[in-house]
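Module 6 notes. Inverse folding takes a fixed backbone as the condition and produces residue identities as the prediction. Think of it as a translation problem where the source language is geometry and the target language is the twenty amino acids. Below is one complete input and output pair. Work through it position by position during the lab.
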């Protein structure tokens, strides 16, 4: 049985988009022109555009028309621990080190005239906004992760991350106020902590991280996320929320009674249209993973 006419039209347009006959940013013909080209009704053309829109191939801008969507090269984030740094989970500037390492691997491979997979590395210089620091009462979802009462004070540090002009992630980390009271005053300063917060807390307080747990949630974006990432208003592009809780095996830093003791929790929101994730176990390639396809 032949596909419905709207599907045939949509697949023809998809082929043209993938062959770059219709390039990113190109405006599609209006409905009347499509009706003449394909000999189809208005509703059939609208169903074809809807099919393409749901697959992220085109977007309609009110009052302007329908345009081919710019393809975004995914950023690959490693969720398993790096044995040399202990960092993973897309946290902080360490998340961008994977891009730089991948770019260097591709550059060296090309210089040596080697065949290299995953040459599509996100463009742009990685950068982060100045931290926005606040002292607040712990919301329930924060208190649960840090094992605090909801009336407890926490320090939050919020940053936005970019590749060039493209927004890539929003990240907020919460710390029990007890850490500041015990001497970790840098947590309340609106500036980057050069050695990283884990290193700083070990130096300032003798607090050592013994491990962490990463939870991954997939959900619709909230209003702030949709606006920041430039996502469609219909929420068809979800965000991946990484919740990374860090633990110490030394009691007395946070008030938790049973170890391991949580001392920080990071919430990172990443849009699903520009991010991929990888986990390593056992013996695996040393080079960072490149973006992958499954179809």
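Target side of the pair, the amino acids:
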């Amino acid at each position: 049985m032949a596909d419905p006419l709207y599907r045939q039209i949509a697949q023809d347009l998809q082929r043209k988009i993938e062959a770059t006959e219709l390039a990113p940013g190109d405006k599609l013909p209006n409905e009347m022109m499509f009706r003449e080209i394909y000999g189809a009704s208005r509703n059939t053309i609208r169903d074809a555009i809807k099919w393409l829109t749901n697959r992220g191939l085109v977007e309609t801008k009110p009052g302007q028309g329908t345009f081919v969507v710019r393809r975004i090269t995914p950023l690959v984030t490693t969720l398993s621990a790096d044995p040399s740094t202990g960092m993973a989970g897309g946290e902080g500037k360490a998340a961008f080190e994977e891009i730089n390492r991948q770019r260097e691997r591709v550059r060296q491979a090309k210089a040596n005239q080697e065949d290299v997979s995953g040459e599509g590395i996100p463009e742009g210089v990685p950068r982060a906004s100045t931290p926005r620091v606040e002292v607040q009462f712990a919301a329930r979802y924060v208190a649960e992760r840090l094992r605090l009462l909801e009336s407890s004070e926490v320090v939050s540090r919020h940053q936005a991350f970019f590749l060039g002009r493209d927004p890539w992630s929003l990240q907020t980390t919460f710390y029990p106020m007890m850490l500041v009271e015990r001497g970790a005053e840098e947590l309340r300063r609106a500036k980057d902590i050069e050695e990283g917060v884990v290193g700083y807390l070990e130096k300032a307080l003798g607090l050592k991280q013994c491990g962490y747990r990463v939870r991954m949630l997939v959900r619709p974006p909230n209003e702030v996320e949709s606006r920041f990432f430039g996502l469609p208003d219909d929420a068809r592009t979800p965000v991946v929320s990484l919740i990374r809780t860090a633990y110490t095996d030394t009691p007395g830093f946070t008030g938790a009674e049973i170890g391991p003791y949580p001392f920080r929790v990071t919430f990172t929101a990443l849009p699903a249209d520009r991010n991929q994730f990888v986990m390593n176990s056992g013996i695996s390639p040393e080079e960072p993973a490149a973006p992958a396809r499954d179809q």
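Reference fact for the lab report: The two ends are 24 Å apart (CA to CA).
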